[in-house]
Design a protein that fits this description.
Elements lengths: L2 H7 L3 E10 L2 E11 L4 E5 L6 H8 L7 E6 L2 E2 L5 H6 E4 L11 H11 L5 H12 L14 H13 L5 E5 L7 H16 L3 E5 L3 H7 L2 E4 L5
Parallel strand pairs: 3-8, 3-9, 6-7, 7-8
Antiparallel strand pairs: 1-2, 1-4, 4-5
The protein binds adenosine-5'-triphosphate (ATP).
InterPro entries: AAA+_ATPase, ABC_transporter-like_ATP-bd, ABC_transporter-like_CS, P-loop_NTPase
Family: Belongs to the ABC transporter superfamily.
Keywords: ATP-binding, Nucleotide-binding, Transport
Length: 218
């Protein structure tokens, strides 16, 4: 097997033995899964079952008490430039710079990641997410659904091998949800691995190849 074939076979994301406690409360006990290129795994479970906690442990936002996370075979390290450029993350609590416009946010992402033809890509993504007319607005003046679209747009103007999304359907209208499904199906076809948490049966049905059910917290 060539090195290229071996790299293709390797999961983009591997998680094993994840344990997370908050005081006496064990939220995650021995959670493990993998996500390969071109596939999507969804975390499902009731409110409080630990979906966001898994995503926070995977992205390094919250350290796990036990367990391993590796990206492309490399142990997760947020100082690694290759890992930072591989992983596009859209969580629920995304903050925006209050004094940068919509287009300036996307420009910043694209340029920080040295994306070629950043201007053209940012314009395309702005049109795609329906924010072209709002390009010069500040985030504080956007509707909550428009802010969600801006957060998602940020993931599509930067390099990525792995997309991590926490309930990406939130605050999107029906047309927005259909757009998101089409976009994420395309991302899968282009070889991205996707890990997302969701309460939307429509999104789960349209996208998920693997379902990780949480809810057995003690
Ligand atoms: N920083 C924290 N300190 C204490 N408990 C926490 C903390 N963060 C999360 N928890 C608890 O961990 C559990 C899992 O929370 P989490 O946000 O991962 O659930 P979720 O499955 O994403 O829920 P939802 O469907 O409501 O988004 C909850 O009981 C929550 O109260």
């Amino acid at each position: 097997m060539s090195a290229k074939q071996a790299a293709k076979k390797q999961p983009v994301l591997e998680v094993s033995g994840l344990v997370k406690r908050f005081g006496e409360h064990t939220v995650l006990s021995d959670v493990g899964f993998e996500v390969r290129a071109g596939r999507a795994a969804v975390l499902v479970g009731p409110n409080g079952s630990g979906k966001t906690t898994v995503l926070r442990c995977v992205t390094g936002a919250d350290p796990a008490d036990e367990g391993e996370v590796s990206i492309g075979g490399e142990p997760y390290d947020d100082r690694s430039p290759s890992i930072r450029s591989a992983m596009a993350v859209v969580m629920d609590d995304i903050d925006f710079f209050p004094d940068l416009t919509v287009v300036e946010h996307l420009d910043l992402y694209a340029r920080a990641h040295r994306v070629p033809n950043a201007d053209a890509l940012v314009d395309d993504v702005l049109r795609e997410v329906g924010l072209f007319a709002q390009a010069a607005q500040l985030p504080g003046s956007l509707s909550s659904g428009q802010r969600r679209r801006l957060a998602l747009a940020g993931a599509f103007v930067r390099p990525r091998r792995l997309l991590i999304l926490d309930e990406p359907e939130q605050r999107l209208d029906e047309e927005g949800l259909e757009w998101l499904i089409t976009r994420l199906q395309r991302e899968k076809r282009e070889g991205l691995a996707i890990l997302f948490a969701s309460h939307s049966p429509r999104l789960v049905e349209a996208l998920a190849d693997d379902v990780i059910a949480l809810g057995g917290a003690s």
